[in-house]
Design goal:
The complex is a heterodimer of chains A (about 260) and B (about 350).
Chain A lengths: L28 H15 L5 E5 L14 E4 L5 H11 L4 E7 H7 L1 H9 L5 E6 L2 E2 L5 E2 L18 H4 L5 H6 L4 E8 L3 H19 L4 E7 L3 H4 L3 H15 L3 E5 L9
Parallel strand pairs in A: 1-2, 1-3, 3-4, 4-8, 7-8
Antiparallel strand pairs in A: 5-6, 7-9
Chain B lengths: L3 E4 H11 L4 E4 L6 H10 L6 E4 L3 H13 L4 E5 L1 H17 L3 E7 L15 H5 L10 E3 L4 H18 L2 E7 H5 L1 E4 L26 E2 L6 H21 L3 E4 L6 E4 L2 H16 L4 E6 L1 E3 L3 H8 L4 E6 L6 H8 L5 E5 L8 H13 L2
Parallel strand pairs in B: 2-3, 2-4, 4-5, 5-7, 6-7, 11-12, 11-14, 14-15
Antiparallel strand pairs in B: 1-8, 6-13, 10-12
Helix pairs in contact in B: 1-2, 1-6, 3-4, 9-12, 10-11
Classes of the chains: A alpha/beta (about 260), B alpha/beta (about 350).
Bound molecules: thiamine diphosphate and iron/sulfur cluster.
């Protein structure tokens, strides 16, 4: 019951739909969705935003964000977003992609969208595993990490090294903003929120390609509790995938926070 | 209007521009490349989107995105590139967005070669990608016809919210013929109730091809199949030559039909009542017309620039009523009328 002494301090963002999500308990996909919804609200862009969903656990992101959405083939979201953005340059177009989607099957598409400096925003969710298909090794699986296809732990001699996408993409002239964040605690969630907002602002300023890599948990396929999963992000993932700003182009410094 | 001499690829590109194509995405491959080159020079200056993609896979997914955004969009390629596009085509079919694709076919399998071929009949007309769908496939036999089919392809794609493929072989893409170009069109912008443009003053829209519940996906497929039946009812196209009193019919499409037509004429000079039947729509295939022809001929010769692909549809239509023989050349070999004539004579002799 809200009376004159109470005020609402936490609620659904307007761009969020009020439905029960399909994510596992403790999964941080939902946190990242919320940050996008808050950003869309704050920038007042809900009615001109078109999202592109990936194939992965977040395939149904369009059930949770109240914007137009297209569902891409696995890994092709950056190509699809290119087609939408080139057709409707005054709309805001973003992709939301997992690590298998972006850094394995869709590597060519993300690298070339970045190389072209496509004026799109990419939210890249790195949970070091294939969530949707139940826990296979991902391009970002840590060395030694056990998955269903690296049952003895990822052996870098046989299975190669994890890809560091925020660093890799930061090398490209078409990229204006490439950062890595995490959502394992409130402080980092706030920093992630700020980065997501920056990334959308880059697009609104026609300043080129922007990407936020977000380290995210998958308690289900890491076989740990939600609390232990957040600890894993902090203690295991961040050392390999350091948080930080890998590229903040001079051209965007005046408006990113 | 006077006719002008145009090369096939460039003529197709110009026809697409005149039909109002707003966004093109493609990747170089012989013998189609001039189409991409031509549009790269024209579209940016016209305020239309042109992107040379990193692969055909990316190109078709860009087309998919542009189609979702509601603009007239197309790609073009040749056989190996079309193979790579099959993933995107399946998603496009599963999302019901209108797309135009031009395939300037070359020899396969594998890298094959860059010479003219009709090697893609199967992958174009039978679906190509996963799932149940068949794109509308139109096969021109001249540069003029390629222009006309391309010009009309966008309306057709939009009518059914489906894929329309103009399937020409390398001959049509590369040769020059006198043509008359259609007038440039302005396509009126209007909301058709499905395109993604931002949910301004309306509920959000989602374009997807995922339906997890079997009953729901079944129902959606039934709906897609209803559209295929509609297409099969309305869009059958073919051409006939000397078929009124025909005893021996030669059936061929695209540039193979040009040799078939001349061979039929040569056969007439030798007293054989030959005629030529040319499917223009490869899907929907003119089954009924071929079945009707089978009732009044003594034999049918199918001529293709492949190992015999369309012949399977001819045989389905003929249902064993009369002999159906085959003459094919592969690897980029193009049959001449003199190659086809002895095959007609063999058919007449019954061996
Ligand atoms: C062409 C193709 N190959 C494979 C798959 C199966 N598949 C679905 S999701 C997925 C991996 C998803 O992992 P990720 O992108 O890391 O996202 P997450 O589920 O972890 O959020 C795979 C391999 C597919 N749908 N399409
Ligand atoms: S499988 Fe992992 S990534 Fe997918 S919803 Fe569950 S916890 Fe999240």
């Amino acid at each position: 019951m809200i009376n004159e002494h109470m005020q609402v301090v936490f609620d659904y963002p307007d761009s969020f739909t009020e439905v029960v999500s399909h994510y596992c308990p403790g999964c941080t996909h939902g946190v990242i969705h919320r940050l996008i919804a808050e950003t869309i609200d704050e920038l007042g862009i809900r009615e001109k935003t078109i999202g592109v969903a990936p194939v992965g656990c977040s395939v149904f992101i369009y059930n949770y964000l109240d914007t137009d959405f297209a569902e891409a083939a696995h890994g092709r979201a950056p190509a699809m977003a290119t087609g939408i953005k080139r057709s409707l340059p005054d709309r805001v177009v973003f992709t939301y992609q997992g690590d298998g989607d972006l850094a394995a099957i869709g590597t060519a598409e993300i690298v070339h969208a970045a190389a072209r400096g496509e004026n799109i925003t990419v939210i890249f969710v790195n949970n070091a595993i294939y969530g949707m298909t139940s826990g296979q090794m991902a391009p970002t699986t840590l060395p030694g990490m056990v998955t269903t296809t690296s049952p003895n732990g990822r052996d870098v001699e046989l299975q190669g090294f994890p890809l560091k996408m925020a660093e890799l993409l930061s090398q490209m002239p078409g990229v204006s903003y490439s950062v890595r964040r995490s959502v394992h605690d409130p402080g980092n969630i706030n920093r992630t929120k700020k980065a997501i907002k920056n990334a959308f602002q880059v697009q609104l300023n026609q300043a080129g390609f922007s990407i936020v890599e977000v380290l995210s948990s998958c308690p289900t396929n890491w076989n740990v509790t939600p609390a232990a999963a957040l600890k894993f992000v902090k203690e295991q993932m961040i050392p390999y995938f350091p948080l930080g700003d890998y590229k903040v182009a001079d051209s965007i410094k005046s408006f990113v926070g | 209007m006077t006719k002008e001499l145009w090369e096939g690829n460039r003529a197709i590109a110009e026809a697409a521009l005149r039909a109002g194509v707003e966004a093109y995405f493609g990747y170089p491959i012989t013998p189609q490349t001039e189409l991409l080159e031509y549009l790269s020079g024209k579209m940016p200056g016209m305020g239309r989107a042109f992107v040379q993609a990193e692969s055909e896979l990316a190109a078709i997914n860009m087309v998919y995105g542009a189609a979702c955004a509601g603009v007239r969009t197309m790609s073009s390629s040749s056989s190996p590139g079309i193979s790579l596009m099959q993933e995107g085509l399946s998603y496009i079919a599963g999302s019901e967005v209108p797309v135009v694709l031009v395939d300037i076919m070359r020899g396969g399998p594998g890298l094959g070669n860059i010479a003219p071929s009709q090697s893609d009949y199967f992958q174009l007309t039978k679906g190509g990608g996963h799932g149940d769908y068949k794109p509308i496939v139109l096969a021109p036999a001249s540069v003029q016809e390629a222009v006309d089919l391309t010009y009309g392809a966008f309306d057709l794609a939009e009518k059914y919210r489906h894929i329309v493929i103009v399937a020409a072989d390398g001959n049509i893409g590369q040769m020059m013929e006198p043509i008359e170009l259609p007038p440039p069109r302005q396509v009126a912008k209007r909301d058709r109730g499905w395109e993604l443009t931002g949910a301004q003053g309306r509920p959000r829209r989602v374009i997807t091809s995922i339906y997890l519940v079997p009953e729901v996906l079944h129902k959606y497929n039934v709906h897609l199949q209803d559209i295929q039946r509609e297409i099969e009812k309305n869009e059958v196209r073919y051409a006939e030559y000397l078929m009124d009193d025909v005893e021996y019919a030669v059936i061929a499409f695209g540039s193979a039909a040009r040799a078939a037509q001349s061979a039929a004429k040569l056969a007439r000079a030798r007293g054989i009542r030959a005629g030529m039947f040319r499917p223009i729509s490869l899907y929907p295939f003119p089954y009924d017309r071929v079945a009707e022809i089978a009732k009044r001929v003594r034999g049918i010769l199918v001529v293709e620039m492949n190992a015999g692909q369309m012949i399977e549809d001819v045989r389905l239509a003929v249902q064993g009523r009369v002999p159906v023989e085959f003459f094919g050349m592969m690897g980029g070999m193009v049959p001449l009328p003199e190659d086809v004539l002895p095959e007609i004579e063999k058919l007449v002799r019954g061996k």
